[in-house]
Design goal:
The complex is a heterodimer of chains A (584) and B (351). Among the domains of chain A are: 96 residues, Nucleotidyltransferase, domain 5 (2-Layer Sandwich), CATH 3.30.420; 147 residues, Rossmann fold (3-Layer(aba) Sandwich); 111 residues. Chain A contains 17 helices and 22 strands. With 351 residues, chain B is mostly beta strands. Chain B has three domains: 139 residues, Glucose Oxidase, domain 1, CATH 3.50.30; 74 residues, OB fold (Dihydrolipoamide Acetyltransferase, E2P); 60 residues, SH3 type barrels (Roll). Chain B contains five helices and 29 strands. The chains are: A alpha/beta (584), B mainly beta (351). At the A-B interface, helix 4, helix 5, helix 11 and helix 12 of A face strand 1, strand 5, strand 26 and strand 28 of B.
Chain lengths: 584, 351
């Protein structure tokens, strides 16, 4: 249906997270779409409930409690379309991140070309790569086959060959995959996505069509050696993951019906929005969106309208915490603790939390551990994605982030944070951005829901964002400098709209805040000393307009990359001081 | 809000599905009374495969090779059995490199499965087979005490339970394990060293039920050949008093320790079953119920992980927690008479 005909419809957007299910109502207020309210409940994908529908209805109950309007009928079915008495909604959309990591086998021709594309494609959703095959694989075909069967994949991603290019080697690998699928029990056969040489599409259909859980043939992710195009294939992959969830989790089928198929993996919907925003706002640098959740940490970056998306179940703060120490050292986590907590307690926390992913920190100590874990998980996820940024995106130094225009952050640990200051500090510590950018907190985790709602109505995301659905924490100035701790690196002057001024002499290692309330603008003069770069170039001064936020203008001169003192007492004192600066 | 229920019950009807990981043959009969170690189903599966490329070996097309293949799908072949033969002046043949079964023959190739392995599915609990699941397994029903835990090392066994606990926060050490405990299921407290796990293996014991364990012991624990069942979690957590009371009062009884890993998606979790004679069948436990004042609950996390309490109040809406977070919470009167505010997602009802 054309957008013009559906633009006044109310939309219920449902996010089924690993720990929490949210029901969000978008409706038209004074001719513009607005975020109306959110209700939430624990997700019920897991035992003893084993049906996401229970949690979805509880979340809708909670939403009804907030809005006062009835969305569920007495027999607990959704009222749709909206009725003249104000009950019900016109349309439903949904995203899902609940469910175990998608065990994925990736197949490509060249290990540093198509196989890398297959890996990036796998990382666009909640995949855990369990095996990979390429032309340099030394295993015999039957060993490859056994490897696939043993790893019991949920998904196989096949890439390889430029369009019209090599085909024989790919066919060989396809045979192994086809035989492996054939050997698996019918109900456990993996979904297969083919995104390789288009000339082989018919062969793929013949070899795999009858033996896979479902086969999708997409455009080649490598139409030529120099070109990578993950877009169409990642869309197909998102569809397959949704199908997989329908097979794995009770209640997703019903959600599929409610939404008339408008259901996407949450990370994919997040990425879709970032690509859209990057194009809409013609961002000259980059937009970065992070979502630290129980099922995964996902990071989406939009550079000149192109999306780089990474979804990392291994850095999720739920079930996968038990395995986090395979990717990082315990000391890398405990370095972020402002309280004196034994490393052993942190180790036990990881195992205990993996048993109960939905549990919340109830004490100050547990909150400190949770925040430290989130920092390290996000730090690792951002660094993993950074490796896949487009080659045209340059950083001042290899170990620094490229300059960004905006950071938008969501996910339980950030949106439910004890304070906005805590959330901001977490983002600064983990992402370690450079330059000048506003930071927004998506406290209701709307971004992915806007991504899927945009499929139904493309006015909705823009109007909801413009209505101020995200919380502006403030504008951050992150300084890159070679200096000694305590050296002055910047003079800053904020001139408010009424002509009053606030000044700060910023020293290296420090964190300064110049208050600027939400909704206000001011002019910020930056005068770095020596060759320090405050976002205008090394040693360059200038005046820029800035917008306010919950904290104001935050000047982070703690160094990039951020280096913490090795002495634990001094480090904790410093962390406490930073916490105090941002409001505790 | 709905609460998951942790089953610690002196008497309940327990119904469990026991299934093979791959399709196989069900050996048990309907209404058969089984013991925990009885094999109720079995399956043979191939550990590996061999791909014989007839076309390539003979240097001919796939179509031509298909005409030379002498075996069909499903054929069982001995080692050296003829797979394909190329006639002519000097006959050439392809033979089965190992004993196995033909899975696929065609396209100029033959795929065989070799290296048969057998998996036996044991009943895992005493009871009566109430349902046969064709090619998969059985449903078993019994009555008795049920005590669920949080972690298991994937093993299953049964034996006489011997109590080594004198209090819920007791520590089990290797010195407590002597030869008199051989063949028993040990009820211990907190375990903090690998020596204890190894000493139990050397007895050997038939099972270890502990309150808690350091997570650093996990790599050793999963290697042990006897079942290890952790009731309350990782770290130094005392045994919850409901499990402590029920288990210690069943000292010297025959128990089944099913230490299967906690699978949050299918609901399987490690559990101890103590079969008991009953005159009438007790109720089956409820998997979840709405939270309500007066319910007995167990804390999953800090400040008192594993401790039991009673819901004294359920404040409406969101509550501000000591951590600074806001969440739906309950005021819990703990067994030590203190009252704490706990997020509801950190609680499970005991029943």
């Amino acid at each position: 249906m054309p957008t013009s005909l559906v633009q006044n419809e109310s939309i219920l957007a449902i996010e089924v997270g690993a720990a929490v299910t949210r029901a969000v109502l978008f409706d038209v207020v004074e001719g513009q779409y607005r975020f109306v309210a959110v209700g939430q409940a624990p997700t019920t994908a897991e035992a003893p409930f084993k049906d996401v529908g229970i949690g979805v209805r509880e979340a809708i109950d909670s939403l009804q409690g907030v809005t006062g309007s009835r969305l569920l009928s007495p027999d607990r079915n959704l009222i749709t379309p909206a009725q003249s008495d104000g009950s019900g909604v016109d349309a439903v959309v949904a995203t899902i991140s609940a469910g175990p990591a998608v065990k994925t086998v990736i197949v490509g021709l060249l290990s540093d070309v198509s196989l890398q594309s297959a890996r990036r494609l796998a990382e666009s959703t909640y995949s855990r790569v369990v095996d990979s095959i390429d032309i340099t694989d030394q295993r015999k075909p039957e060993q490859q086959l056994d490897g696939i069967v043993r790893s019991r994949p949920d998904m196989v991603i096949l890439t390889g060959g430029t369009d019209g290019g090599a085909s024989r080697s790919i066919l060989k690998m396809l045979e192994s995959v086809g035989l492996a699928c054939y050997l698996m029990p019918m109900e456990k056969r993996p979904m297969v996505l083919y995104a390789g040489n288009q000339k082989l599409a018919n062969d793929v259909q013949e070899l795999l069509g009858g033996h896979s859980g479902k086969l999708e043939i997409s455009y080649n992710v490598r139409p030529s050696l120099e070109t990578e195009d993950l877009g169409p294939a990642s869309r197909e992959l998102a569809g397959l993951v949704t199908k997989l969830r329908q097979r794995q989790i009770k209640g997703v089928d019903e959600l599929y019906m409610w939404t008339a198929g408008n259901i996407l993996p949450t990370a994919y919907a997040q990425g879709r929005m970032i690509r859209f925003l990057s194009r809409l706002y013609e961002s000259s640098r980059g937009l970065l969106s992070v979502n630290v959740g129980a099922s995964a940490t996902s990071v989406a970056a939009g550079f000149a309208g192109e999306l780089t998306l990474g979804t990392y179940p291994q850095f999720g703060l739920g079930e996968s915490l038990g395995g986090l120490l395979q990717y990082t050292e315990l000391e890398e986590i405990t370095r972020w603790l402002p309280l004196d907590i034994s490393p052993n307690i942190v180790r036990e926390y990881l195992s205990q939390k993996s048993l109960y992913p939905g549990a919340l920190p109830a004490t100050r100590d547990e909150q400190a551990i949770s925040q430290a874990l989130a920092r390290q998980a996000l730090y690792l996820a951002v660094r993993a994605l950074q490796k896949d940024f487009p080659a045209s995106v340059r950083s001042a130094k290899p170990d620094l982030m490229p300059p960004l225009d905006l950071i938008l952050a969501g996910g339980g640990v950030i949106s439910d944070g004890a304070s906005l200051g805590q959330s901001l500090l977490l983002l600064l510590d983990a992402i370690q951005p450079v330059g000048i950018m506003p930071i927004l907190i998506d406290q209701n985790n709307l971004l992915p829901l806007l991504g899927v709602a945009g499929e139904r109505n493309n006015y909705l995301p823009v109007q909801v964002i413009d209505s101020g659905a995200f919380i502006g924490v403030g504008t951050v100035i992150s300084i890159v400098a070679s200096a000694n701790y305590g050296d002055q690196v910047l003079r800053a002057k904020l001139v408010y709209s009424d002509g009053t001024e606030a000044r700060a002499d910023v020293k290296f290692g420090g964190l300064e805040i110049l208050p600027l309330p939400n909704g206000q603008t001011a002019r910020l003069s930056l005068q770095p000393t020596s060759r320090a770069d405050a976002g205008l170039g090394p040693g360059r001064s200038g005046t820029i307009p800035v917008t306010g936020g919950a904290l104001g203008v935050v000047i982070d001169a703690r160094g990039r990359p951020l280096s913490l003192p090795s002495d634990p007492v001094r480090r904790r004192e410093l962390l406490k001081k930073w916490y105090y600066t941002v409001g505790g | 809000m709905l609460a998951p229920v942790l089953h610690i019950l002196p008497l309940a009807t327990i119904v469990r599905e026991r299934t093979l990981p791959v399709a196989g043959k069900v050996l048990a009969r309907l209404d058969q009374r089984v013991n925990p170690t009885d094999v109720v189903a079995e399956a043979n599966y191939a550990r590996e495969h061999v791909l014989l490329d007839v076309a390539r070996t003979f240097g001919i097309s796939a179509n031509a090779a298909d005409k030379l293949i002498k075996v069909n799908e499903g054929d069982r072949l001995p080692e050296g059995g003829l797979v394909a033969e190329l006639g002519g002046m000097i006959s050439r043949s392809i033979k089965a490199p190992r004993q196995g079964r033909v899975m696929v023959a065609g396209g100029g190739q033959v795929l065989m499965e070799v290296g048969d392995a057998r998996v036996e599915l044991r009943a895992g609990m005493p009871g009566v087979v109430t349902q046969l699941l064709p090619e998969r397994g059985v449903v078993i029903r019994t009555a008795g005490s049920l005590i669920q835990g949080t972690w298991g090392n994937g093993r299953i066994d049964n034996g006489l339970m011997v109590n080594l606990l004198d209090k819920p926060d007791a520590v089990l050490s290797a010195e407590r394990l002597d030869v008199s405990l051989r063949g028993s299921v040990i009820l211990g407290g907190h375990v903090r060293d690998t020596e204890t796990l190894r000493a139990a293996a050397e007895m050997p014991v038939r099972g270890l039920i502990v309150s808690s364990m350091l997570s650093s012991l996990l790599p050793t624990a999963v290697q042990m050949r006897y079942p290890i069942l952790v009731l309350d979690g990782f770290g130094a957590i005392p045994m919850n008093t409901a499990a402590y009371t029920l288990l210690t009062s069943n000292n010297k009884r025959e128990v089944t320790v099913n230490a299967e890993p906690f699978d949050r998606y299918n609901g399987n979790r490690p559990e101890v079953i103590i079969p008991l004679p009953v005159s009438s069948e007790p109720d089956e436990p409820t998997p979840y119920i709405p939270f309500a004042v007066g319910q007995r609950v167990r804390m999953r996390r800090a400040p008192h992980p594993g401790m039991l309490g009673t819901i004294a109040n359920l404040p409406a809406g969101m509550s501000l927690l000591p951590s600074g977070l806001r969440a739906p919470a309950g005021e819990i009167k703990l067994e030590n008479d203190t009252t704490v505010l706990v997020p509801l997602v950190n609680l499970e009802v005991v029943g």
